Please model this.
Amino acid sequence: MWSQLKKKKREASIAWNHFKKTVEKTHAVSNYCGKAIKTMGNTTNLLNHLSNVHPERLKDSKGQNHTTALDVFVGKSTVHYSNDSARKRKIDEMVLSMIAVDVQPFSCVEDEGFIALLKEMDPRYKLPSRTYLRDVSLPMQYEKCKAKLREILNSVDYLALTTDLWTSRANEGYITITCHFISSNFKLESAILATQHLLTPTNHTAANIADTIKSVLSDWSISEKVVCMVSDNDASMKKACESLKYKHLPCVAHTINLLVQDMLKQQFLEDILSRCKTIVAFFKRSSTAYAKFKAAQKAENPYGLIQEMPTRWNSAYEMIKRIIITNEHISVVLAVSHNAPLPLSAEDIDTLKELSLLLAPFADATLSVSTNTNVSISLIIPVVCELCHKINGLQLKTVEGIAALNYVKMRLRERLFPYETRTIPRVASIIDPPFKKQEFLSASNAEEAAKALQEELSSICITIPRPQPAPPTEEPTRFSFLKTKIEARVQSHRADSLILLRQHLEKGNQPENCDPLEYWKISTEEALKKISKKFLCIPASSCESERLFSKAGQVISDRRTRLSPSVVDKLLFLNKNKNINKIEIS
Model:
């Protein structure tokens, strides 16, 4: 009778509620901190780790009543998913993805409202600890995304880089490197490669910057694929490019902003801009005056005021525009406010209107070249040309407006004309179907651009096999010497490139809204298609790197200033590369 009775199964240790065995079964990994603890079948080491590092978890576990099948059946208790459950792993991934994409702190998994929400959505799911997400889930998801991006980069022939240095709220210096390329289905794509400290954090020399970039590119095995590096006008960045032997392109948006800032610093504009800033600061400082200002507008969505910030592009233009629109209401409130600055006169407003007319083309040009979703490199020369035509066509009357216009005309040639002499913008513009040679300010620069494209075609034609001629007929020929001479004729890649260039330039220009990537995607000219992938992947500005600064400012927030550089890198990597799985590979 006793042999017929089933032996009672030994109850598992509570330690296994907090650990997961490794494949080798010689260690167990903590669900909370991700640390691997040695175990040879017993749980002493595991319980010691819980007692020393996670005592609150052990206390909770000991305080729990055992759940019976009847409890679950009648709804008195809930059985959570096991740690190796596919459902739990999937939700864990989604929680980490939310943290990275929405820039949430890891501590959000301890927020009462978030816990209640997930409990209502799926009672069987139990949130992992923030240490588990940071030390286990984050590295796993990062490596998975990195492997996918590595596969994509291995399939492309050309890519461009943007890079910049920035300082976090924790006063730590970082360098961000992004890459840009054209996928197999002719889509412009971008990805972040790294956000990290310089190899020597206390040294911002060109050599140290170059060594740091080189180490990142070496890790991704893409050093030989880089066509160009785009950065701001900093001398260290330019010198780092020279050291790496990469072509450097100064960020056009940054160059435009420098020109505008130089103009705004001139003495003839100092007084009126200072008074504008003082007025805006008064309203920003006084909540009562600001409330009166909005009430005076009697609008459902009243305007606010914008303060000019030298580091925020076009902010002076936006400040002036807003003051012009709301000046009537500003004057009313200033007249009845205590210790308020003097309102602007009619002459002041006339000057601001002319400044607005002068700054508007620069704002439009900045927006045109700051995109990272569409081709922008081929827009540099047309944008500069359009900017010159607009500025030269302005007729201003105020003393300040005329002085500002004359200053801009002088500096425009110095700051922006050199882009027409650079090979990369030249080739990119001439290969863009709507532009070709018509967008150049100088006819000689247009001819030089054609020569540069012809040289590129000549080098590309060497790598593309020629179509094989049809086999000769067996019919007798009167001139037998012709066959020998034809077979001995040297094939000229230079001649091929000249023919391709001429055919491209003689075709009619496409409409201005023509997408160059869609155009070359369906083209049968393989050499030109390859050149379009090489040059059109380059961004006109380094805005993509700079956009990450604001994102990084959210990641390293007041709530999480102690994040390690490695965690910052991984979070920004997942945030920027969240759509990496949608990129097609040839």
User: Anything to note?
Assistant: The longest helix spans residues 130-154. The longest strand covers residues 173-182. The chain has four domains: 11-79, 137-250+542-582, 256-421, 423-464+491-535. The domain at 137-250+542-582 is CATH 3.30.420 (Nucleotidyltransferase; domain 5).
